Amino acid sequence: MDYQVIEQDGRPAFAVVPFADFEQLMAEYSNEAPVKKASARKKQATVPHELAKLVALKDYSPIKAWRKYKGVTQAELAKKLKLTQPALSQIEKSEKGLQQDTVKKVAKALGIKPEQLAIE
């Protein structure tokens, strides 16, 4: 890939790439287009910046952050999961790792990938 590094105060500050390369990178990053090269790195599950801020700044659990981000109430998500609202509240407050089965069910109910709930 061709690129140009622009320095600021003697340090790299920006990398400029041809627009076609930029479009390919963005398509791969956003999972909107298939990876064209077999050697390309595996796609990673990503999370919106706003959601990461909820986890980092408001100390929300990943489940609570996703629920709030998607505009879903505890009662609505609990109903999708066939749980009571207090049970979901306990899951959201859990400091311990959740069972993979639970993570998969919550991810499916929120319309996300299970890997997207692994926000640290």
From TrEMBL:
CDD domains: HTH_XRE. This is HTH cro/C1-type domain-containing protein. SUPFAM superfamilies: lambda repressor-like DNA-binding domains. InterPro entries: Cro/C1-type_HTH, Lambda_DNA-bd_dom_sf. Pfam families: HTH_3. Signal peptide: none annotated. SMART domains: HTH_XRE. PROSITE patterns: HTH_CROC1. Residues 63-117 form the HTH cro/C1-type domain.
